[in-house]
Amino acid sequence: MEQQKKKKNHFPFRLNILFFSVFLLFSVLILRLGFVQIVYGENFKRDLDRKEDFTISNPVPRGKIYDRDYKVIVDNIPKKAITFTNEGFSQKEMLATAEKLAKLITKNTDKVTDRNKREFWIMKYPKLAEAKITDNERALYDDKKLTDKDIYKFKLDRITDKELVFTKEELEVLAIYREFNSGYKFTPQIVKNEDVTEKEFAIVSENLQFLPGVDTTTDWERSYVFENTLRSVLGKVTKSDEGLPAEQLDYFLARGYSLNDRIGKSQLELQYEDVLHGTKSKIKNSIDKTGNIIETNVMSVGKKGKDLVLTIDMNLQMAIDKIVEEELWVTKQSPGTKLTDRAYVVLMDPRTGELLTMSGKKIVKNKETGRSEMEDDALGTFTTTYNVGSVVKGATILTGYKTGAISPGTSFDDAGIKIKDTPIKKSYTYLGKLNELDALKKSSNVYMFQTAIRIGKGHYEYDQPLNFSNKNAFEDIRNSFASFGLGARTGIDLPNEQTGLKGQSRLPGYLFDLVIGQYDTYSAMQLAQYASTIANGGYRMQPHVVKEFRETAVESNELGTVAQEIHPTVLNTIDVKKEWMYNVQTGFKKVMQEPGGTAYNFFGKAAYSPAGKTGTAEAFYDGPLRSNYGKEPPPVMNLSLIGYAPSANPEVAMAVLVPWAYEGTIDNRASLRIGQRVLDTYFQMKNQ
What we know:
Blueprint: H1 2-49, E1 51-58, E2 65-66, E3 72-84, H2 91-102, H3 114-124, H4 126-130, H5 135-142, H6 148-157, H7 168-182, E4 189-192, H8 198-206, E5 214-224, H9 231-234, H10 249-253, H11 267-271, H12 273-276, E6 281-288, E7 293-300, E8 307-310, H13 314-332, E9 342-348, E10 355-365, E11 372-376, H14 380-383, H15 393-403, E12 411-413, E13 433-435, H16 436-442, H17 445-455, H18 473-484, H19 508-515, H20 524-535, E14 539-541, E15 546-550, E16 562-565, E17 570-573, H21 578-593, H22 600-603, E18 611-620, E19 635-645, E20 652-662, H23 670-687
Parallel strand pairs: 2-8
Antiparallel strand pairs: 1-6, 2-3, 3-4, 3-5, 6-7, 8-15, 9-10, 9-20, 10-11, 12-13, 14-17, 15-16, 18-19, 19-20
Helix pairs in contact: 2-7, 13-23, 15-17, 15-18, 15-21, 16-21, 17-19
């Protein structure tokens, strides 16, 4: 009885201790919760409300390109597009969406690679992929002797060709998933923008709620109103699946471009990328800590790129292109022309430097048909250089004046020049005693040789060695030529201009070749700048193909206001007396308008009073068939012609260049035929 009472007395005491302990624990917990709420509550609230802001820049259509008369040359054609934006989806989610989308559209699978197929197989069959790893390899992986990359490579390599067989439907899913996966997070990626049918566009639009990340929109592509005319100069734009070029990645990223933006990748499109690209729209998205978009705000509306207005007259360009093509085909049918394959014409306003036409044509062989075809090579007017012959003789005469080697009225006998141990160098025929005007008119080589001897301060005796006391004779002549644009950058507003090659030997005979245009090489653009400099009295004008920038118009078929006008730029002036320049201009006029002039038979009756200079240069062939001739390519003749009109107040300057025009001694006069038709056409179209 007493023992039971003792036990009974102890039970309430222990229960009280337990309750008291629980009370203390709850009290500590409440105090701790209160402390956390008071001290850290704001921090935890911020963590719960934390969001991340990021900005998406959406591209806008590029600016248009017009000719000088505001005819559209390059435009944008809208086209339907289906896009995908990765809003933080998992691979499984993207694959599920790709499978749904594949049932609604057809997708070209040509770009699916073997690597894509293997990665797709691993994703579809993860257990089978895991089975391809041996127990030994897993042990090495656990010991960190193999990496995730190693294991993944084993899986890829061990998939058999038999396992990589997919149905057409599966390949379409893969092609779509490939596009999904190639995009950047929260940036729209084009899934399909070629041949999207009305039905596809409509059915995808109707099912967007079941296709997370997918959207339908309007994309654009460049269209060329005049097709292939001037295409090599207009340049190209990257395709939607190309993105930024790797070699210029940092440059464009630093300027706010996205990795999958389309940009101009050559010539005009590249040179004026900053103008044509426009201002992208900016949209700020906010996401919570789980990656869900919780808010979207438009920060700025995009603005289409500015329009370019060119100096080119496209009607004139097409007319000149036709002439060059026709004459090149005719020339190709002449004897000794198996290497002839190209011709170039540049028309330039000598008062402003505006380029009116840049025509280049090249005969190429179609690899599929084996037939000869004509392709645009307007780019070659400033990216390829050749020996041009006697057209440089006007610069030689002015260099002679400047250096004091000759003076107005200086005469020389046209007898050939013979340096000891070298072949005689002479004109195409004996021309008698000549002053500088008739030397230009009849294209005397010997007159230029005598001028070179005096520039070099040499003493000439027939069949004796010739040395120059002026050791800078080559530099003096080249520097003078460069002031006209020969052998120097013209400053054209396009990339990749070539200045030409300079001969390396300094033997006296090569100085003779230099002053008649048979040593250094020049481009058709340089010849046009040189002709313009003579025509305008000594101002070397910078040639330019862009006339002005225009703002985006409210209506798509209207012109916007002028944003910037390209003004004429004088690169340098020729330091000669007006009398000297007038003498060369008179000599050029005699070439075309006076009987006995080398171009008189083609231009003597022209009502527009032309002036100019012909050129023929013996050169070595360096074209696409050069490998057929081993170490000794055959000698060929390059034909050239420069001119301007009217001679009293020139409004147009011309350069014609026909490289490798013929072999042997049969002169086909291609440059003169082209030049005559070009100037005739220019003035006919002007009058119309």
